[in-house]
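Review session, final week

We close the course with one last complete record, chosen because it touches almost every idea we covered. It is ABC transporter substrate-binding protein, a protein from Saccharothrix xinjiangensis with 329 residues. Go through it on your own first, then we will talk.
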Amino acid sequence: MLRKPTALVALTAALLATACGARIDEGARAAGTATVTNCGREVEYARPSRVVTNDTGITELMFALGLADRMAGYTVSSSAKTGDVASSPWRADFGRVPHLGEKVTKELVQGANADLVFAGWNYGFSESTGFTPDALAELGIATYQLTEACRNGVGEQRGIMPPLEALYTDLRNLGRIFGVEDRAERLVTGYQEQVAAAQRLVKGERPRVFLYDSGLDQPFTSGRNAAPQDVIGKAGGDNIFGDLDDSWTTVGWEAVVDRAPEVILINDYADGDATTPEQKRAFLESYEPLKDVPAIKDKRFFVLPYAALVESPRNPAAIEAFARFLAGS
């Protein structure tokens, strides 16, 4: 039974109720600078007025804080533009803030006269493309790094704190940077209450859950530092790869089989391998090594959109939706 995230649709009105424009008092606007800890470093920011964001969830953090008027534009892929953006509780903001392109580049942010770029490692920042915080600093452009994607000092691995803590950290940091601390704290409090309510739905044993993002030869999934860790855990399940000190990472199918997931959570976005949830499920059900996996035998699948499974203001609603599924299945 492939279930669409209907609970998320029902919660759209609640999300929109918190998406009104933030009032930035004149004293805060004139204050000039704010210092926050971003990815383990103390960074001082002049108050930005022309922000460029990369990716859906990152952009929605700005919109949830009512900061659309502080943005020069955003970049998202074409698939996100027709999928996550179209279904976003903040689609009106996506419509009025310029869509600058599919990929963020130095030339693009310079052309937008950006004074801050909000992105993350593998969410725009990349040594291979030369688009890095250091490269932008040389151009006089400040950067804020998504906390979910902070590198943790072990190779290319990412994530330095539990996923929901990363979400709340970024909301509070952005609140300080833009002078909307009260707005940020109200959002955090509301999200914490929503997660607590979802946890009251949890009952019985905790099923083992495999987050399937993409990949045919090898699956791409979530370790303990990416949003699915808390989406799964707070909803009453156990992420079978929660022992991996990374955010998004590649594993082997043998490990999936060995860990015998009882539920499979599918990430719904166009990924170049199997673009729809139905295609992903069809692949999983037809892949011979998985035939004896409990989730496959019992046909226990659930779908959430990409923007609910990366760090974003959709995470609490995703937890509630998945908790309802697990409680009712």
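Two points worth writing down before the exam:
The chain has 17 helices and 15 strands.
Residues 181-199 form the longest helix (19 residues).
Good luck, everyone.
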